[in-house]
Amino acid sequence: MVYLQITLMIERTNRAAACIYQQYKETFLEKIQGAKSKTQLVRDEEV
User: Fold this and answer.
1) What is the DSSP code string of 10-22?
2) What's this model's pTM, rounded to 2 decimal places?
3) CA dist., res. 28 & res. 47, Å (int)
4) Quick one: DSSP state of residue 29?
5) Would you say 15 and 21 are in contact if contact means Cβ atoms under 8 Å apart?
6) What are φ and ψ of residue 26, in 5° steps?
7) DSSP assignment letter at 33
8) Rounded distance between C-alpha atoms, residue 14 and residue 28, angstroms
9) Tens digit of pLDDT for each residue in 1-47?
10) HSE of 41 in the Cβ direction (CA atoms, 13 Å)?
């Protein structure tokens, strides 16, 4: 099993743009062979 973690530093004023994740989550899970789950954390504690 392989894990991929990507960290993006997003300005507080641009956090609403993070909703793009919701649009492409299913596409990612369907097209990436072996993908089981994907989560995104956009709270201040994680960014």
Assistant:
1) --GGGGGGGGHHH
2) 0.35
3) 22
4) H
5) no
6) -65, -40
7) T
8) 23
9) 677 777 767 777 877 777 776 777 778 778 877 777 766 655 565 44
10) 8
